[in-house]
Amino acid sequence: MRIAIVTDIHEDADRLVNALKLLDSDGYDQLVCLGDITGYSKGFNYHRADAEKCIALLREKRALVVTGNHDLNTCKKLPSYYGSYGLDEHWYAMKPEHKKQKAYRKFWLYEDEITSCQSLESLSFLEQLPEWLILETDAGRILFSHFLSPDHCGITRSFPATYIGWGKHKAFMKDHQCRFAFVGHAHPSGIAVTGKLGWLNPSETFYRLPERDRIIISPALVTNQIASACLIFDSSKNEVKTIVIS
Asked: Which terminus of the chain is more solvent-facing, meaning fewer CB atoms within 10 Å of its CB: N or C?
């Protein structure tokens, strides 16, 4: 099975169009989006924002989509696990200064963020996205989420740099009998793959996953710091192909 993967689009419809053309040319069986379709920051992003077109394109391709932290912020929804981080149901109604006091640099606050997502249909689409999903393949079960368990949606500012930090995600994979897991959120240059102690950053265009039970971080489709890319995972070969988007 060939699985095409895009993530962290951040309303860049032009880049998404280019990515889909390249993926269509390569061929795939299922398209998966790992979240953050929305979320545009004037201080960071410089492309023309068109969240409505991005959502329409993904729906047209019948993509499987999970929600990201920016998507949650766009539709003003808290993840199911919000209480475990000390958040309450009134989070979005709180004044910015009160959010800052409560966050203590722990959560993303989206202070300079805007969105072009306005229609009720698109907001409803975002609101109904799952926090994670599993796909059955010939290589076994594959877990897809925006980020790592227990913060599947990436609402916190933490990033686990070693095997200790991703242990809960590995446990989640084991509980759900998943061989591989793909996440987004971190915007690496190329892919990042779990090694014995820390993250590996293979530079090969075609990278064969060496062992079982690996977590792969996908590169962002849009970012102003590094080259953006999308992926195709060939489950029959356990091989990840990185496709750079110009």
From this structure: C
pLDDT along the chain (246 residues), means of 10: 97 95 97 96 84 97 98 97 93 90 89 89 97 94 98 96 93 96 94 93 93 92 80 96 92
C-alpha to C-alpha distance for 18 and 16, rounded to whole angstroms: 5
| Distance of alpha carbon 181 from alpha carbon 217, whole angstroms | 8
d(CA 147, CA 184): 6
Number of other residues whose CB lies within 10 A of the CB of residue 184: 27
The C-alpha torsion from 182 through 196 and 244 to 148, rounded to 10°, is: 30
pLDDT given for residue 38 in this prediction: 96
Residues 6+ apart with CB under 8 A from 153: 35, 67, 68, 69, 72, 79, 131, 145, 146, 147
Q: What is the DSSP string of 138-194?
A: TTEEEEEESS-TT-TT--BS----BTTTTHHHHHHHHHTTEEEEEE-SS--SS-EEE
What pLDDT digit, counting tens, does each position of 212-235 carry? 889 999 999 987 666 799 999 999
Q: What is the pTM of this model?
A: 0.96
Average pLDDT value for the chain: 93
Alpha carbon distance 34, 154 (integer Å): 11
